[in-house]
Automatic annotation (TrEMBL):
Taxonomic lineage: Eukaryota, Metazoa, Chordata, Craniata, Vertebrata
Protein source organism: Sparus aurata
Gene name for this UniProt entry: ITGB1
Domain of life, per lineage: Eukaryota
Alphabetical list of Gene3D superfamilies matching this protein: 4.10.1240.30, Cytochrome c1, transmembrane anchor, C-terminal (1.20.5.100), Laminin (2.10.25.10), ntegrin, alpha v. Chain A, domain 3 (2.60.40.1510), von Willebrand factor, type A domain (3.40.50.410)
Descriptive protein name: Integrin beta
InterPro entries with a match to the protein in the record: EGF_extracell, EGF_integrin_1, EGF_integrin_2, Integrin_bsu, Integrin_bsu_cyt_dom, Integrin_bsu_tail, Integrin_bsu_tail_dom_sf, Integrin_bsu_VWA
PROSITE patterns for this protein: I_EGF_1 (PS00243), I_EGF_2 (PS52047)
Location(s) in or outside the cell: Cell membrane; Cell projection, Invadopodium membrane; Cell projection, Lamellipodium; Cell projection, Ruffle membrane
Domain Integrin beta subunit cytoplasmic positions: 712-758
Length: 758
């Protein structure tokens, strides 16, 4: 709902604009010429009707009645909502110490729970003693259940109806649910009455516990529930029947969710089906009952899944004979009471509520988690910020009431909602006003609201005459075929232009031929953001010109550092310099990338940014961030003067290590300084040690081999000369061939005298 301008004269509405165009944003109405005093802009509000502070008390202090204890603040509010405008308020919650508790123990009395019953018989006084550590106002009650009293859940033979157990076991007749003991503060009475109970029996494994839970929830008067913390302990060692299972016994009528106890016995189990889980959730929530499922370990998974479907419920593992039931109840109660979850009643159509929780230790949550806080101890105070927003106007503006409460608690916040559906000026309308063509309408909020079958801005036409050819003719521009330029409707011979989805955009003109959104754009902005669009033409702001108001008449942006416009080397056009000297570039024609000295000027910055060396390496980021650095692999990748559309300078510089580096410097067409640099240094190569050493070694070896060969050759020549000389002397020698007088033969011949030659 937008503010309404009640001014309709003095040209506020342009020709062709509908009366509804008066509804717009406040700034837009003022900009279009509506006097601020003529703008009606109703605002939402909130009033706190009941704001009793949360109770601050300690255990042992003066005892208070439950209705005198306050855990939630405020208690009653009135919100006036305007469409789209949220109303927010804070809700405080504080767990009161020594808050009263009602506990109802609902027990499965099928035969398998026989040993459990013995332990429960003394539960009253023991549990009263334990709960006295938590509260001084505690009441306990007891109920039991078995199963529906029809086949196939129980045996309906006369003998089995009297005693469903086998053998010598003495069991009571089967029943659906009994309220054995309404809530009482007398623990001994609990022990006495529970001690008088007997086990019963049934045929199938699942039990009829849901019937019993439903009756405990809705029979508040018979159970004795007070407006305090309500706990229901559901004890069993079996599963459960739910809606639809009654068909096995021929029961098809859905559970009605009403109390049917007569003499504390559920009498309609044979008539109504088991309740559904959703039905139970609703009734438990409506009656602020928190459920504790005390079940054996075998059925833990089943009841864990059930717990996930029932808010503010807990599951505990029951020992085989229920000996741990007291500890189970205490632990489950502490778990349930340490968490607060807000829920709200059904919301009217178009209404939304957002929650933000501010829990202990500064934990803040939103969304679904914004509804709850965990780990709350007694005496802790938490806050919820709640925002209520209306979209539209539900039920023609009639007031509605919603309630917000913590699950499992009886206290709640009641919120009365009132809706702003129209402006106050509508109440001052003048019926059959002469301003509306001789009384053919009601004059309200500065415009005519026509009577039935009357149309036109002043209700000057009958609706029967609206579609005549004569009237349509006046809505065609230049006798064309398009009525109202296809942007409006011809009403009473006058064009009423169509509305656009965007309220900022509108058609206008006698024939709806104009609009305020089809003008030239610059920088993706209508009229460059420096003007307004009127009838598809930009009307520029001062100091701006051009078809899209994108040409600035301010030459301060062209002023060079020497106080000359464009450094005296160009002209200022639309706030930007156009350099006339091709050597100069930049926003003020002060940059000359090809002038001598450019390479030396930028050497240190290129060196530090590209290689991390040089005199400026320690302050490189501070002094050398004025250009864009682009690295390339080799000199062939550097941009060439013929390829670039702007002047650039090739540079070759040497660093302290006598290494050369190559780069180009230029100012591109976007006036950005750009440096391309080869990312590897060109350094002079030093001697290669390995080949030198290998050459020296090889030379030494070769020289040695050569010397050996020469020596060997000389020795061969020498030996051959000596041998030749020897041969020559041998040839010339003359030897004596006589016998040697001192020579004796080495052979001696002896003749055997006995030898006869045979």
């Amino acid at each position: 709902m937008n503010p309404l301008c009640m001014l309709i004269t003095q040209g506020f509405l342009k020709q062709g604009e509908t009366v509804s165009t008066r509804c717009d944003e406040m700034e837009s109405l003022i900009k279009r010429g509506c006097d601020k005093g003529m703008i009606e802009n109703p605002r939402g509000e909130q009033r706190t009707l009941k704001n009793k502070a949360v109770t601050h008390r300690r255990k042992g202090a003066d005892k208070l009645k439950p209705e005198d204890i306050t855990q939630i603040q405020p208690q009653k509010l009135s919100l006036t909502l305007r469409s789209g405008e949220p109303q927010s308020f804070d809700l405080k919650f504080k767990r009161a110490e020594d808050y009263p508790i009602d506990l109802y123990y609902l027990m499965d009395l099928s035969y398998s729970m026989k040993d459990d019953l013995e332990n429960v018989k003394n539960l009253g006084t023991s549990l009263m003693l334990e709960m006295s550590k938590i509260t001084s106002d505690f009441k306990i009650g007891f109920g039991s259940f078995v199963e529906k009293t029809v086949m196939p859940y129980i045996s309906t033979t006369p003998a089995k109806l009297l005693n469903p157990c086998t053998g010598d076991q003495n069991c009571t007749s089967p029943f659906s649910y009994k309220n054995v003991l309404r809530l009482t503060s007398d623990g001994k009475k609990f022990n006495t009455l529970v001690g008088q109970q007997h086990i019963s029996g049934n045929l199938d494994s699942p039990e009829g516990g849901f019937d019993a839970i439903m009756q405990v929830a809705v029979c508040g008067e018979q159970i004795g529930w007070r407006n305090v913390t309500r706990l229901l302990v559901f004890s069993t060692d079996a599963g459960f029947h739910f809606a639809g299972d009654g068909k096995l016994g021929g029961i098809v009528l859905p559970n009605d969710g009403k109390c049917h106890l007569e003499n504390n016995v559920y009498t309609m189990s044979h008539y109504y089906d088991y309740p559904s889980i959703a039905h139970l959730v609703q009734k438990l929530s409506d009656n602020n009952i928190q459920t504790i499922f005390a079940v054996t370990e075998e059925f833990q998974p089943v009841y864990q899944e059930l717990k996930n479907l029932i808010p503010k419920s807990a599951v505990g593992t029951l020992s085989a004979n229920s000996s741990n039931v007291i500890n189970l109840i205490i632990d489950a109660y502490n778990s349930l009471s340490s968490e607060v979850i807000l829920e709200n009643s059904k919301l009217p159509e178009g209404l939304t509520i957002a929650y933000i929780s501010r829990c202990k230790n500064g934990v803040v949550s939103e969304g679904e988690n914004g509804r709850k806080c965990s780990n709350i101890s007694i005496g802790d105070e938490v806050t919820f910020s709640i925002s209520v927003t209306s979209k539209g106007c539900p039920k023609k503006g009639k007031s509605e009431t919603i309630k917000i409460k913590p699950l499992g608690f009886t206290e709640e916040v009641e919120i009365t909602l009132n809706f702003i559906c129209e402006c106050e000026c509508h109440k001052d309308g003048v019926k059959n006003s002469p301003l509306c063509h001789f009384g053919n309408g009601t004059y309200e909020c500065g415009a005519c609201k026509c009577n039935e079958k009357r149309v036109g801005r002043q209700c000057e036409c009958s609706s029967n005459d609206v579609a005549t050819e004569d009237m349509d003719r006046t809505c065609r521009k230049d006798n064309g075929t398009d009525i109202c330029s296809n942007n409006g409707d011809c009403v009473c011979g006058t064009c009423e232009c169509k509305k656009r989805d965007n309220p900022e955009e509108r058609y206008s003109g006698q024939y709806c031929e104009c609009d305020n959104f089809n003008c030239d754009r610059s920088g993706n902005k209508l009229c460059g953001g420096h003007g307004r669009c009127e009838c598809r033409v930009c009307v520029c702001d001062p100091m701006w010109t051009g078809s899209a108001c994108d040409c600035s008449l301010d030459n301060s942006t062209c002023m060079a550092s020497n106080k000359q416009i464009c450094n005296g080397r160009g002209t200022c056009e639309c706030g930007m310099c156009k350099c006339t000297d091709p050597k100069f570039q930049g926003p003020t024609c002060e940059t000359c990338p090809t002038c001598p000295g450019v390479c030396i000027e930028h050497k240190e910055c290129v060196q530090c940014r590209a290689f991390g060396t040089g005199e400026k390496k320690d302050k490189c980021e501070k002094d050398c961030s004025y250009f864009n650095l682009i690295k390339v692999k080799d000199r062939d990748k550097l941009p060439q003067p013929n390829d670039a559309s702007y002047p650039l300078m090739h540079c070759k510089e040497r660093d302290a290590n006598d290494c050369w580096f190559y780069y180009t410097y230029a100012v591109n067409n976007n006036t950005e300084k750009e440096v391309h640099v080869v990312d590897t240094l060109d350094c002079p190569t030093g001697p290669d040690i390995i080949p030198i050493v290998a050459g020296v070694v090889a030379g030494i070896v070769l020289i040695g081999l050569a010397l050996l060969l020469i020596w060997k050759l000389l020795m061969i020549i020498h030996d051959r000369r000596e041998f030749a000389k020897f041969e020559k002397e041998k040839m010339n020698a003359k030897w004596d061939t006589g016998e040697n007088p001192i020579y004796k033969s080495a052979v001696t011949t002896v003749v055997n005298p006995k030898y006869e030659g045979k």
